[in-house]
């Protein structure tokens, strides 16, 4: 067994003393700094299965997402488009581990969403988030409102999605 507990509850893995333990979590309200950009990695390469599953789970029957033969005849892209709601969900999802894991109370809403360029099957989606503003909640002590701008770019650094989101985040205990 590679794990052993020594004196004073110091865990050892392969004979190395654990001197510090870090648990993955998002940022507390106080840790958000307006104007900071977070680059979320790794990116996510979108597969045909991702697009078909998301599109059918959400009952979106748009042929531009599902029918390769039809989409090939449609200008200006001539191929299937990745469902834009998948793109939005993914750029927000890519931010969770770094920003809101375990510290988010609620999403309060999206005020602006845009898809300036399409995302295609096989593209890799990268996301970044800028902290736009923050304020303490007047009605919920121990929580604050943080506004975020999420931006999704493909592997060519082309912006494919942008969304502004208001979140309710816990303050430090």
Automatic annotation (TrEMBL):
Any one Pfam family match given in the protein's UniProt record, by short name: MaoC_dehydratas
InterPro entries (UniProt xref): HotDog_dom_sf, MaoC-like_dom, MCH/BMMD
Top-level lineage group: Bacteria
Sequence ranges assigned to domain MaoC-like in this UniProt record: 34-149
Record-annotated membrane-spanning stretches: none
Similarity comment: Belongs to the enoyl-CoA hydratase/isomerase family.
Protein's UniProt name: Acyl dehydratase
């Amino acid at each position: 067994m590679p794990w052993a507990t020594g004196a004073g509850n110091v865990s050892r893995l392969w004979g190395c003393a654990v001197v510090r333990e870090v648990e993955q979590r998002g940022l507390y309200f106080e840790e958000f700094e307006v104007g900071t950009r977070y680059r979320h990695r790794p990116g996510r390469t979108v597969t045909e299965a991702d697009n078909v599953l998301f599109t059918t789970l959400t009952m979106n029957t748009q042929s531009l997402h599902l029918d390769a033969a039809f989409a090939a005849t449609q200008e200006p892209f001539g191929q299937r488009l990745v469902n834009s709601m998948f793109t939005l969900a993914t750029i927000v999802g890519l931010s969770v581990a770094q920003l809101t894991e375990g510290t988010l109370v609620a999403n309060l809403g999206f005020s602006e969403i845009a898809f300036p360029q399409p995302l295609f099957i096989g593209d890799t989606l990268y996301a970044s988030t800028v902290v736009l503003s923050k304020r303490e909640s007047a009605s919920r002590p121990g929580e604050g409102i943080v506004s975020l701008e999420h931006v999704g770019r493909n592997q060519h650094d082309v912006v494919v999605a942008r969304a502004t989101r208001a979140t309710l985040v816990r303050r430090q205990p």
